[in-house]
Amino acid sequence: MPSMPPFSRREKIATYEKVCWPIVWEEQRINSLDGVEIALCVGRNVAIMTGKEEKQVKGPEGEVVILYFQGNGSSIPPRLPQLSAVLKALDERPYTLIAVSYRGFWTSRGRASQRGIERDAVAALNWARKTYLRPDTRLVLWGQSIGAGVATFLAASHHRQHDCLRRSEPPALILETPFVSVRSMLLALYPQRWLPYRYLGPFLRNWWDSEEALRSISNTRPNGTGRRKVLVVSAEKDELVPSEQADAIEKLCTGGGMDVSRTRVRGALHTEATFRGDGRNAVVSFLKRL
Fold first, then answer.
1. Residue 181 per-residue DSSP state
2. Among candidates 147, 124, 128, 148, which has minimal Cα distance to 138?
3. CB 127 within 8 A of CB 56
């Protein structure tokens, strides 16, 4: 729902600038695979030195580049304080977070659709790799709710296009309040056989299927080397996604030979998992271990 709440497409980065400091955000414009112009919010931690001088935080290890994929509602700018709180706690090495605004959301052009968002995700990854990635850079795909489906799709797409036996680490995954698939959510929310909704699967316009994506990236490396690291974050009081969905995601990742961590955020609703300290600390700890 790109226009919910009302006026979400008119949000400005500047509105949240002070609360985000010392995380500095800037908007970048790129073309998706089909030419649609989309927006990215790129955030980095800067340290105040003297006066107006700013210096990029540096560390002995390679940079970590995080692609963030939002949920179904609102736009990127209101999420910047939450994302900045994570980046503020990461001061041991350089981190860059790229929040992707899907087509039809915020200032991105076009109209939202699953195929279109898939193209946007691939284009954002291509831009990130061209702009930031070096041999020692770690890549992380972080998705919240429907965004978790985008992240698993992109991980599977990246896996298909690159040699899965190479020595470099595969992109890590942060799956925040994820669900298995849109079809599985229909069955979970409407288990009664006499209700018509559970039978609408064949008519869905969007089908985000993390199960299929995760099965396609199961560990195939010799001796289990280069296992994909995954963090699953669920909200204890999630009013939208049943807890069994995150349980199933965790089981799929574990069964696929991935290195899985799981955090259940006490008292959190669907959109609050990483706003709360437990969830935010889990993400920070996960990123520091990469």
1. B
2. 128
3. no
Burial 117-151 (b: 16+ CB within 10 A, else e): bbbbbbbbbebbeeebeeeebbbbbbbbbbbbbbb
Task: Cite the DSSP H helix spans in 137-242.
Answer: 146-161, 182-189, 210-216
Token pair for 103 = 């087509």
Cα R_g (the chain), whole angstroms: 19
Q: Which CATH class is domain 18-288?
A: alpha beta
Domain spans, the chain = 18-288
Residue closest to 245 by CA, chosen among 200, 196, 183: 183
**Where does residue 212 rank: exposed (0-12), middle (13-18), buried (19+ CB within 10 A)?**
middle
The phi and psi torsions of 216 (rounded to 5 degrees) equal: -75, -15
Cβ–Cβ < 8 Å for 54, 46: yes
pLDDT by position in tens, the chain (length 290): 555 555 667 789 999 999 999 999 999 999 999 999 999 999 999 853 223 344 444 444 688 999 999 998 789 999 999 999 999 999 778 999 999 999 999 999 999 999 999 999 999 999 999 998 787 889 999 999 999 999 999 999 998 887 554 556 799 999 999 999 988 888 877 777 777 776 766 666 777 899 999 999 987 554 555 789 999 999 999 999 999 999 999 999 999 999 999 999 999 999 999 999 999 999 999 999 99
What is the 8-class DSSP label of residue 228?
Answer: P
CB contact at 8 A, 157 and 122: yes
CA distances from 262 to 142, 175, 287 (A): 14, 10, 14
